[in-house]
Amino acid sequence: MSIVDRLAAARGERPADLILRGGRLVNVISGEIYPTDIVIHDRHVVALGDGYSGEQEVDLLGKFVAPGLIDAHVHIESSLVTPPEFARAVLPHGVTTVITDPHEIANVLGLEGMRYMLERAKHGQLNMFVMASSCVPATDMETSGARLEAEDLAPLANHPWVLGLAELMNYPGVALGDEGMLDKIALFGDKVLDGHAPAMSGKLLNAYVAAGVESEHECTTVAEAREKLRLGLTVFIREGSTTRNLKPLLPLVRPENHSAICFCTDDRIPADLIDQGSIDYMIRVAIAAGVDPMMAIRMGSYNTARHFRLKKYGALAPGKYADLVVVSDLRDFVPEQVYRGGVLVARAGEMIGERPPARRLDLRSTVNIRASSLDFRVKAVAEMIRVIGTIPHQVVTEHRLERAKIVDGFAVSDVERDILKFAMIERHRASGNLGLGFVKGFGLRRGAIAGTVAHDHHNLAVIGADDESMKTAVAAIVEMGGGLVIADGDSVLARMPLPVAGLMSELPIEEARRQYDQMIQAARALGNQMSDPFIVMSFMGLEVIPKLKLTDLGLVDVETFKLVELFV
Amino acid sequence: MSIVDRLAAARGERPADLILRGGRLVNVISGEIYPTDIVIHDRHVVALGDGYSGEQEVDLLGKFVAPGLIDAHVHIESSLVTPPEFARAVLPHGVTTVITDPHEIANVLGLEGMRYMLERAKHGQLNMFVMASSCVPATDMETSGARLEAEDLAPLANHPWVLGLAELMNYPGVALGDEGMLDKIALFGDKVLDGHAPAMSGKLLNAYVAAGVESEHECTTVAEAREKLRLGLTVFIREGSTTRNLKPLLPLVRPENHSAICFCTDDRIPADLIDQGSIDYMIRVAIAAGVDPMMAIRMGSYNTARHFRLKKYGALAPGKYADLVVVSDLRDFVPEQVYRGGVLVARAGEMIGERPPARRLDLRSTVNIRASSLDFRVKAVAEMIRVIGTIPHQVVTEHRLERAKIVDGFAVSDVERDILKFAMIERHRASGNLGLGFVKGFGLRRGAIAGTVAHDHHNLAVIGADDESMKTAVAAIVEMGGGLVIADGDSVLARMPLPVAGLMSELPIEEARRQYDQMIQAARALGNQMSDPFIVMSFMGLEVIPKLKLTDLGLVDVETFKLVELFV
Q1: Helix or strand or coil: residue A85?
Q2: B319 touches chain A (CB under 8 A)
Q3: Which of A30, A51, A318 is facing B257, going by the closest CB pair?
Q4: What would the pLDDT profile of A159-196 be if each residue is shown by its tens digit?
Q5: CB A207 to CB B318 under 8 A?
Q6: Phi and psi for B443 in degrees, rounded to 5?
Q7: What letter does residue B258 receive in the DSSP assignment?
Q8: pLDDT in tens, B381-410
Q9: Sheet holding B162-168, edge to edge
Q10: A509 CB contacts (<8 Å, ≥6 apart)?
Q11: Residues 350 to 369 of B: which have CB under 8 A from any A CB?
Q12: Predicted confidence (pLDDT) per residue in A469-495, tens digit
């Protein structure tokens, strides 16, 4: 198979591999929908039109054929499964290409982590492109598993699957001309530069964009998105599991600006991927809200391919890859058939074919903690303590001052007032670093929850009603080599191993989803009322989002960007 | 000056070089027009918005500010002047960037010719990007000055000013999978591939596009353009001096497809560039015909930059180059001020500032003919001859059969029936090759016209009423080292030296234009009634355009793609 064969098939001089007859093409290039046969050979669309014959011919009975969908920005690690399993979740939803930032695993394993993701995607059924993670670690007020400077990223700059530099989260650094950030931008200057600048505005935003940033997925209001779009940023509208910006941002979308807007999911948990979907879900919501289907489909395919200069993706025309979805009703937009590279990979929401055997990949251990020597006691040196206050459905927190519950000279969890002890244990280098604090909102009456998913450093976070439960949970995680645990006293109530960097399960996504649901149930039994306490906990250590957070180095006042004492 | 300075200016922490205040920005990204200050520093736009101060501040008094215009496809050689003079012609018209195919000089001088164009553009005021000429020579039925295969073009593939592969004119070769063409396409596979496939349709067109071609500038009808656009080709609407496709194609343009349409000029003579303009002219004509100004401006700037993946061009936003035009009335669209890289380069249709001193560049002689040994006599071997029949305002010709005027056993020009002798003299290698034929339509009652501009091989073409005039004209051209001549008997009536490859003058474009006008006047005095006999003659040797053409190897029947005898 080669270009020579494809041209022969395009000329009609040899039968094509496959002809999709009788469909109505959603031509995202010309903006028209019309009946045409689609001629596919050697993974590519080779022709549109009549008079061809194929080895295989499929009658689409008047259904609509749209390009395979593209997710402009997603952290696959948030699905809690590895790329092949993530692929099996999104392909039935019509997503055939993703642009991923392997930011979570890069914080744990550095380049080795990024290479793991690339290796796992190889020969898979999903087209996975990578943006090189730009901010590892997020700040110097944490200990991550790796530090990536421009010279470390250099080997990725000409990798065929690496499209550019991932979300530049150190937005003050970029706008202020931080040398390390500018070095990274220079390294990827002729590639694509993704942004991340929540609520940035005015002069600082101008500087951020002037540095070369090309996109933004953190907009939450139309006014914010409009300012950014006018400054030349492509707006990626995001609909993650927690960050749901689609409906608020849809009023931004207009015929005259929609070519500068794309769709992305950023972070989605298994249940949402399976039950709700991905980019297909966003297209459905947009159409239901009144967006023209052509525009909605473009934002989920063509616009993203253009933004990332992926010339063989995102549209159906000769020379493009035959990645496509078939839907009966453009308004429902439920993918009934999904082709990737001219091969039917999913039908009626289910993958076709067995899982391929996993490629063998060895990763080093990423949970390096001497559990026996941990001491969670907090010696009381004053009466008042800082407490991280959770806010429902937000990742920002309150910075509260509360009277400590002091027993025998030590500050302890106070379940009556829902002020629970919170520890962040460095897990990459066995440094013994241990950050201790208190958090309000988790509602545990007893026991502890713990996990190695804690953005972005992914140290081991544990919240508990008593020190024994916390130690039990930590020991269980160490034994598993990473994962999520719920413990009560000396008993482990539930566990979910995440052996891949402490972030991802090796199970099929359906099983991972069941395990995860059980973890949430078990937390509920201990008194937690959140829809997902593990996600909430995972953001309590992210010291770039206000107001008060806990890293392995201690409490961070994000507003002053400084480490602060627990007692005040 | 560096990115660090630019970011400081964007943050407002230092005065910017220049602030354009009080204008209305044509924001081609968001599709909006609104008042905003434009902050410029170190060649770039660094900010849009209020509260900045500048070393220099200009009040635009409510005028409109649009991005600098971009010509998607132009052969600069057709302006008959070198790149710096071409720049002085188009910059006052708001064209700040061109994508050029140095196809004419490449046929004469190969890579050396392309390098000449790049060198001549260096440090100039016009942004000139190059597409590597893909079809040198056009066919094997001619002798050109160079032959460029994939391996010859390889040094250009990573040149920072080379964006891809120029118009793939050997469209049957591409569609049929010619190995040499596919080698070139593979070499530039991750760059931009320009097309050229006049009237191609159906299966062959599908194959041509499937090979990777991305654009088309040869459309003459809406139906043709619609078929090509649907297959994924970006349509470059062309308005050259002879090929005027704009008005016929405007009905194609719709809000939902215009982002796949760009404007180009292809070939424009000096008079048209000076009097009419370039892309600005196309924008004016489009708006006058009812196209929304935003769409018209996008087709002349932003769309082209996106097509060629020029991320710092074609829009005004932080991080882009400060190339812009100021107009008082969006519907008139007459550029009053033109900035390139933040510097005012033209005002009220005139360049600001003197010509910079020319960079010294030595090119080898390109007119290698032993004039004394030429023999234009045509021994009559039959009564009927093939005659090339010109058609007004077209580059295609008739393939006529006429009775020859025979004198003393030789076929000669017949001024009464307007059948004139036509010779094509190989001029690159002194091979002595001489193609002889007859042409109808030039109307010379006496004398001869000759020139070294003859697409695409650019051999020396001469048409005359008698052999002596033809010899005089050829000798004068040899003496000048290339150019255009009109002779009568042993007298040279008018001459225009084109010392650069026999294609370009070294004079200022205004003087070149006057010389050229005088040449046309002189031809008229001899009986020619065409608006431009030199352009018409220059296409009489182009053996890839039907029906009958003459190269240095003889007459070519383009429909059978074979050399044929003069006598039948």
Answers
A1: helix
A2: yes
A3: A30
A4: 999 999 999 999 999 999 999 999 999 999 999 999 99
A5: yes
A6: 70, 15
A7: G
A8: 999 999 999 998 778 899 999 999 999 999
A9: B69-74, B95-100, B127-132, B162-168, B192-195
A10: A79, A81, A85, A86, A88, A89, A270, A273, A274
A11: none
A12: 999 999 999 999 999 999 999 999 999
- Residue B189 at interface with chain A, using a CB cutoff of 8 Å: no
Interface contact flag, A47 B7, Cβ < 8 Å: no
DSSP secondary structure string, A459-507? -EEEEESSHHHHHHHHHHHHHHTSEEEEEETTEEEEEEE-TBTTTBBSS
Contact B210 A7 (CB under 8 A): yes
CB within 8 Å of chain A, chain B residues 259-298: 259-260, 294
Look at the block and give the residue holding tokens 């001629």: A39
Contacts of A427 (CB under 8 A, 6+ apart): A366, A367, A368, A369, A452, A458, A459, A460, A502
Provide CB contacts within 8 A for B115, sequence distance 6+: none
Nearest to B44 among A175, A210, A213 (CB): A210
**SS3 state of residue A372:** helix
Chain segment B426-445, per-residue pLDDT in tens? 999 999 999 999 999 999 99
Which of A256, A297, A301, A310 would best serve as a mutation to test chain B binding (most B beta carbons within 10 A)?
A256
CA distances, A534 to each of A80, A143, B200, B233 (Å): 12, 21, 60, 49
Say if the Cβ atoms of B206 and A175 lie within 8 Å: no
Contacts of A563 (CB under 8 A, 6+ apart): A141, A553, A554, A555, A556, A557
User: Among A521, A516, A438, A423, which Cα is nearest to A469's?
Assistant: A423
Interfacial B residues in 519-558 facing A (CB < 8 Å): none
> Whole-model pTM?
0.95
Distances (CA, A) of B225 to A234, B80, B234, B251: 29, 30, 9, 10
User: Do residue B177 and residue A231 have CB atoms under 8 angstroms apart?
Assistant: no
3-state secondary structure at position B8: helix
Record the tokens describing residue A233, joined without a space. 């940023």
Q: Are the Cβ atoms of A48 and B231 closer than 8 angstroms?
A: yes
Residues 224-253 of A with CB under 8 A from B: 226, 229-232
Determine the straight-line distance between the first and last CA of chain B, rounded to whole angstroms.
71
3 state DSSP class of B5: helix
Element spanning A514, H or E: helix A509-525
Distance from C-alpha of A315 to C-alpha of B60, rounded to nearest angstrom = 42
Residue among A11, A207, A214 minimizing CB distance to B10: A207
As a whole number of angstroms, the distance between CA A249 and CA B320 comes to 26
Contacts of B315 in chain A (CB under 8 A): 232
Omega cis (within 30) before B456: yes
